[in-house]
């Protein structure tokens, strides 16, 4: 795939001396859903602000659809829709007026059909004549998304879009995001709900201390860095793990009635088979066993811990 966003050796230091980004290189493919993950203060919002032209670049180069964000700012900004973390809307405007006004800011002619489609997709149609100040926090978040989509952007940034909102909105939003991706819109999202990234993203980038530490296809990432956990339930509890099983690095759990074995799924099944043979030789009998696969959140936590 071709990259629609290209970030080359970008750095940003604020007036306080805090270095938010340090030599970041990143390419985001056209038409993908890209999840940018990282702890608070890692540089996610700064990077989004740089691409959107809200924050000035100190060093490096950023292009969107081949256009430089500095030399061709207006054209680049018209390609981008941004849903920031903060709820910033005119409290006394109606939903319809504020979304329509946002479209006009980008030089787009009035298009009532598009505004209606956008409001309906976010379950806002019945609130179109309501003033923003009368809406709940979740509804205001929906309005922010509608504003970002008003000018039909080709790239949509969602910065913590579901923080503090209800489950219904989250479902509506992700259905909308999938629909936009099918229409060719590139989606870049940050989220604290890593299960959302696991469910939605095509690729995942992890940022820590202002540096990109990993960019990978989500499926490949989980296959490469994920682990499996085998829980062995014993017919009778034991007080300690037999010395003959020490090589398997087992953990005793469930008040002595369970043995937990964590292993790399890329390993052959020989390791598990050898463990089961070892249990038999140690005189331990199994009542049941089950496996679980590590989640994207498990992988993320391990990566951040390594860079802490």
Any overview of this molecule?
- The chain has helices spanning 44-51, 73-79, 95-105, 112-121, 137-149, 167-182, 194-200, 218-225, 270-281, 296-307; strands spanning 3-13, 19-29, 33-37, 59-64, 67-68, 80-83, 155-159, 186-190, 203-208, 211-217, 228-234, 251-253, 258-263, 286-293.
- α6 (167-182) links the parallel β7 and β8.
- The chain is α/β, with parallel strands linked by helices and 308 residues long.
- The model has no long low-confidence stretch (mean pLDDT 86).
- The chain has 2 domains: 3-223, P-loop containing nucleotide triphosphate hydrolases (Rossmann fold, 3-Layer(aba) Sandwich), CATH 3.40.50; 227-294, 2-Layer Sandwich (Alpha-Beta Plaits).
- The strands form 3 sheets. It has a 6-stranded mixed sheet, sandwiched between helices.
Summarize the entry for a quick read:
The chain is an alpha/beta fold. Helix content is 34%, strand content 28%. The mean pLDDT is 86.
């Amino acid at each position: 795939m071709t990259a629609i966003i290209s970030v080359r050796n970008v750095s940003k230091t604020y007036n306080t001396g805090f270095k938010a980004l340090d030599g970041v290189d990143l390419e985001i493919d056209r038409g993908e859903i890209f999840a940018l993950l990282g702890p608070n203060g890692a540089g996610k919002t700064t990077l989004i602000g740089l691409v959107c032209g809200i924050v000035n670049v100190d060093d490096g180069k950023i292009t969107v659809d081949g256009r430089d964000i500095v030399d061709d700012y207006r054209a680049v900004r018209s390609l981008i829709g941004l849903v920031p973390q903060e709820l910033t809307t005119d409290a006394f405007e109606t939903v319809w007026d504020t979304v329509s006004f946002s479209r006009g800011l980008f030089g787009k002619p009035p298009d009532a059909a598009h505004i209606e489609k956008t409001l309906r997709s976010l379950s806002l149609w019945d609130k179109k004549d309501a003033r923003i100040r009368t809406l709940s926090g979740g509804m205001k978040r929906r309005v922010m998304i509608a504003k970002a989509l008003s000018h039909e952007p080709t790239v949509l940034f969602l910065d913590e879009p579901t923080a503090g909102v209800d489950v219904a909105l989250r479902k509506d939003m992700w259905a909308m995001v999938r629909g936009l991706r099918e229409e060719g819109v590139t989606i870049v999202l940050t989220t604290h709900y890593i299960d959302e990234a696991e469910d939605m993203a095509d690729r995942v980038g992890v940022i820590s201390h202002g540096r990109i530490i990993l960019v990978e296809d989500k499926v490949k990432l989980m296959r490469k860095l994920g682990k499996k956990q085998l829980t062995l339930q014993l017919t009778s509890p034991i007080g300690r793990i037999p010395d003959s099983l020490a090589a398997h690095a087992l953990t005793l759990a469930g008040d002595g009635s369970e043995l937990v074995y964590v292993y790399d799924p890329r390993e052959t099944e020989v390791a598990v088979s050898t463990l089961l043979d070892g249990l038999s030789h140690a005189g331990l009998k199994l009542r049941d066993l089950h496996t679980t696969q590590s989640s994207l959140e498990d992988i993320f936590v391990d990566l951040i811990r390594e860079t802490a």
